[in-house]
Design goal:
The chain starts with a strand and ends with a strand. The protein is of the alpha/beta class and 147 residues long. Helices cover 29% and strands 19% of the residues. It contains four helices and five strands; from the N terminus they run E-H-E-H-E-H-E-H-E.
Length: 147
Amino acid sequence: MQVLRLDGFMGSGKTTLAGLIANIEGVRVISTDDFISEDRFRHSYMDGLRYDDLVTEVNAALQDGERIIVEGVCLERLLPYEDFGQGYRVYVKLVSGFWFAPIWHHFYELGREDAEDPIHADILRYHNEYRPHERNDLSIALPEFGS
């Protein structure tokens, strides 16, 4: 396998998990966070990314035969599985352990799209449309820190 794909909401632990695996396996991590523009908070998530730069970097790594971990939010929309190395799809889910809210992803309710800002609204739309939390090879639930 050449590509490990880690998808999930912001703050779910994708970057931490990617770093741990990269240290053990000696593979390169490409994070969509590294391609977020300076003025990202004025746009939707997709519009705040330097998409062409991301695609160029992933394609160069694949053409060089590198084993890579690609981690980020909205991966299936950004880098469709069929077009970018396929690989193994892992969904990283942060689970709240608070007794009053045993849900995942900091009170985001899937099925809704009415988030307070365009970034979160775009990410909710992505989850509702692409269903990465259901369409993966492995789903990992990490406990929320402090719960």
